[in-house]
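INTERNAL AUDIT FORM
Audit reference: QA-55
Scope: verify that the stored structure record matches its stored sequence.
Auditor: D.O.
Record contents follow.
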Amino acid sequence: MRCPHCNESNLPSSTFCHSCGKVLSLKRSSQQPPPFKPMPSVIPHPVKQKSTTERTWAIGGSLVGIIALLAVIYLAATGTSKTRTPTVTNNARVAAIETDIPPTLTWTPEATDTPTPIPATATPEPTATLLQAGNFRTGPGVVFDIIRQLPAGTSVILKQTREEAGERWYYVTTEKQSGWIHGSLLPVDPAIISTLKINQIPYKTPTPPPTPRPKATAKPVGQCDPSYPGVCIPQYPPDLDCGDIPYRRFVVRDPDLHNFDSDYDGIGCES
């Protein structure tokens, strides 16, 4: 339907124009509303009236139920689990049966004091005092190097013990370093010796330094060694080195008992 005022299209069921708001048409619809049909009257069923006795029992049952509910709430608040179980009889009577329900016990462990651990007391290490001054060595033997000499009265801590060539040695620690002391310098109780750890580490015995050879004295000219023509070198023995003679780069022949020609090129004492 179009509006006669603004020519705007509207729905057929519209009374007012949605654009200008004016009345679309004053014509009434030709359709008449359907006739009113009254609803059929409903006749309620007659309600059976209860007798005075039945109403009394109903009220009493309600009161008993309320009392039972209040009892349950009270018992729950006071910590005792007692409930009333209603039982309906044939005559619609409600009775309350009191039932004792034992409470559920929950075990809670009691707090115990945790004992404070007592730290273990460290056992003091055995000590000894030097009777006299002695050598402090790198190993259990007189062939080992001397670290330093400890004065008499020096206190040492006993660490280990060792039997070497029938003699007792102690591995000890001073304030500065560790080393070996001969057993004759330390008076140690046998009971303490039995508690010391036995040292079984294999020690490599150091090679003693070679004994210096005596320097040869010059022999007369008539005793010059023929293995070294052109120079006069005393015959062997004693054994001579290049540092024992004043000659350099001289001819060497076999046998070279003095070993002047170390590279076997026929020339001795080249440097």
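Auditor finding: record pair retrieved intact. The radius of gyration is 65 Å.
Action required: none
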